[in-house]
Each structure stands twice: as C-alpha cells, then as structure tokens.
Amino acid sequence: MPAEFDATTTIQQYAHPERLVTTAWLEANLGTPGLVVAESDEDVLLYDTGHIPGAVKIDWHTDLNDPLTRDYVDADAFAALMRAKGITSDTTIVFYGDQNNWWAAYALWVTSLFGHADVRLLDGGRKKWVDEGRAMTTDIPAPADTDYPVTQRDDSVIRAYREQVLAHIGNGPLVDVRSPAEFTGELLHMADYPQEGAIRGGHIPTAHSVPWRRAADETDGTFLPVDQLRAIYEGEIGLTPQDDVIAYCRIGERSSHTWFVLTHLLGFENVRNYDGSWVEWGNAVRVPIEKP
Amino acid sequence: MRDALHEIVEEFADTPKELRLPLLLQFADALPALPQRLLDDRDAMEPVEECTAPLFLAVEVEPGQPVRLFFDAPREAPTSRGFASVLHAGLDGGTPDEILSTPNDFYLSMGLDDLVSPLRMRGMSGMLARVKRRVAAGISA
C-alpha cells in the first residue's frame, strides 16, 4: 500500500506534488509499511558512512547499468534488485542522494522506465537531511525478499535515442543541461570527469542551454518555487507544457534531474531524456554540431 | 612498486568483493589529519581536478629525506578520501625512486573496477600523477 502524500504547502505548489516529500515528512513517516527509502549517490561509499535509518542503497553504476552493454539492466535484473531491496510493485520509493539529488533523480528515472508507480524524491536530498541534524545510521537493513514482478522496460515514452534526437532538430525543443563551458564546446568533458570525454565539443543544433543545477536552491538544494522554475523554462527559453521536449547532458544523469523538474514539478506531458547524450553525440560520425 | 603499496593492493585483491568497499571506507577513516602548518597555509596544497570532490595534496621532498605526502578531502567524499589514504599508507615515507616507479595503473589490480565506476577511479590516477610530478620537480629543484 503506498504511503500518504506530503501535504506541506511548499510541495503542493508543484504540478505533481505526489512526487516530492520534505525532510520533515520523511522523518515522520520512516518505518511506515509500504515505504522504502533508497539512497543513490555519486560517491559510492557515502551510504556506508551513514544514511537515513532504514534506507537501502541503490548504486547507479552497479545496480542500474548493464555490466556489458551501454544500457540499463534488463527486466529480470531490475526485478531481482527490487526484490532484494524489499520493494513490491505498490511500494512507495523515496529516493535521495548527494549532489542535489543528481543521482537520485537518475535512479528515479530508470525506475520509471520499468513502470514503478510510486516514486518520489526527497526535496533537498541528503545534504538537507544531514544539515538539519536528522538521524543517521550505519546499520544496513536486511529486508525480506519480495515477489516483485518482472516488468518490461518501456523505452518509448521517457527515453530518447540518437536517431530520434536527430529527427527532433528543428521540430521540437532540445534542452542542454550541461555547464556553460560544455555547451559552448570550450570543455570536451565535464570539469573533473576527464574519462567521459568526447572527440568534438559544442552542442546539438537548436538546443537551449539551461544548466540542471539552476532548478535547485543554491543554499539548501531544494527545488526552486514553481514560479521561478516557470520563469526559467517557460519564460527564458519559451517551453510550453505541451511541447515535446528532449533533455540531454553527458551520459543522461543530470538530464534526469531536469526531466524530473519538467515532468513532475511543472507538469510537462512529453519530456524524454536522451541518455546517450554528449558522450554519444560528440563521438558520433556525421551528426550536426553547433558551436557559438 | 613500493612494498607498502604492494601489500595494500594485495590486501584489496584478496578481500572478498563484498568487503572491498568497507575496506576502502576503513582507509577513508584512517586518513591522517593535516599538520597545523598546512592547515595554516592552504595555498600550499594543490587541488586534484580529476576527483569529483574537493581534494588537495601536498608533497614535501628534501634531499636525503623520506618523501612526505599530505592529503585533504572532506568526510562527505569518502571514495576520494579512501583513494588518498591508500596512496598515503602506501607511499608516504618512501624514497623519490620508489614513488616514481609506481605503475600509473597500479590500482587496476585492487579489484575495485566492478564496484567503483571508471570515472571515479580516475581520481586515483590523477592523485598519483600529481604526486609523481611534485616528487620529480622536488628532485630537480
């Protein structure tokens, strides 16, 4: 049975308030049957140094990505992961993590590919929880295995591929959520991530630049109020909620965060994440590139 | 490779896979604090840009003396701290030759590549490259 929704006013302003919870709500609801808290971090050791009591760890690299092919895990592996984490098909999963929920949003997006119904983000992520002095533990929960069903991944609705992006140029908005220096092509990789480079720099023609981090408050990492988000995505770059939008970054993690903002906070109906992103595009032969 | 570092690499390789991250965390916890003179002079420390978290290092090379290594990484970045601590435990107090002879890819034998993504592992090579550069510069200075 899914958990109750967070009725906090700051959450209710968004298009889909059922997708977000506050730290106070989570603290009050810890231990509720049907609620599983999952931590997904950029730093793979962080969970082990301490996490929200009862939270399980979902590793973006070892749990969600196929070890061989550049793709997400298949239906069997995903079901096995959910079973091992004590998650059933009607469990409420609250994701949280470091770096403004960057990887938590990615885990939420991948979980959405498999059609898991009730997925939510903890507003402000790990940092806000820690900064507020809320409880942490190093105890690793040992949930009983569940009977999570094998559900096929649906890549047709919220995921975009290179061919689709190519056809999208000139026909629909693209949002490049990387840093300004990556957008202009000055950097061939994200600062600090030399491994994930590309042979060519720049951006996909017609793409708007809106770095993902702008959607979060600089101080506490919570999402900006809905009117400020609208001012950015609708005001500055002219998107409308009916647009067919494709977001991309470097490997699809930061654009998962923007996908969450557009889809769940602003209520856009057709947003896809191009997870091939610049590591694919900037290395692909004969795809068009724009540089300012 | 210096014996102390070689032993650490073997320790990781011999540890069952599910216990390797806890072992790395033990290293992270064991990273020594900076001496006061470096706490007072943060500009003397070099940032390691290959790391995703703020990580700084300093290398002290004096003729005829063991090389001293110092690392600083926040507790919120345990993986970077763990890598720094492995290098510290394995190379601090070594001779310049011992440090310069460390294979650039020594960490590939630790068996962490299935557990830590390749881009995270780059932090380790970035740190080692900087240590070696500073040692080489210290010898020729």
Structural account:
The complex is a heterodimer of chains A (292) and B (141). Chain A has 292 residues and is an alpha/beta fold. Chain A is built from 11 helices and 10 strands. The radius of gyration of chain A is 18 Å and the shape is globular. The mean pLDDT of chain A is 94. The model of chain B has no long low-confidence stretch (mean pLDDT 89). In chain B, 51% of the residues lie in helices and 9% in strands. Chain B has 141 residues and is mainly alpha-helical.
How do the strands and helices of this protein lay out in sequence?
The complex is a heterodimer of chains A (292) and B (141).
Chain A: H1 9-12, E1 20-21, H2 23-29, E2 35-39, H3 46-49, E3 56-57, H4 75-84, E4 92-96, H5 98-113, E5 119-122, H6 125-131, E6 159-160, H7 162-168, E7 174-176, H8 180-184, E8 208-209, H9 226-236, E9 244-248, H10 254-265, E10 270-274, H11 277-281
Parallel strand pairs in A: 1-5, 2-3, 2-4, 4-5, 6-10, 7-8, 7-9, 9-10
Chain B: H1 3-14, H2 17-30, H3 36-39, E1 46-47, E2 56-60, E3 68-72, H4 78-91, H5 96-100, H6 118-140
Antiparallel strand pairs in B: 1-2, 2-3
Provide a quick synopsis of the model.
The complex is a heterodimer of chains A (292) and B (141). With 292 residues, chain A is α/β, with parallel strands linked by helices.
Query: How many whole angstroms does the radius of gyration of chain A measure?
Result: 18 Å
Q: Which oligomerization state do the chains in this entry correspond to?
A: heterodimer
Class based on secondary structure composition and strand pairing of chain A: alpha/beta
Largest sheet of chain B: 3 strands, antiparallel
Order of helix and strand elements from N to C terminus of chain A: HEHEHEHEHEHEHEHEHEHEH
Rounded to the nearest angstrom, the radius of gyration of chain B is 14 Å
H/E series of chain B: HHHEEEHHH
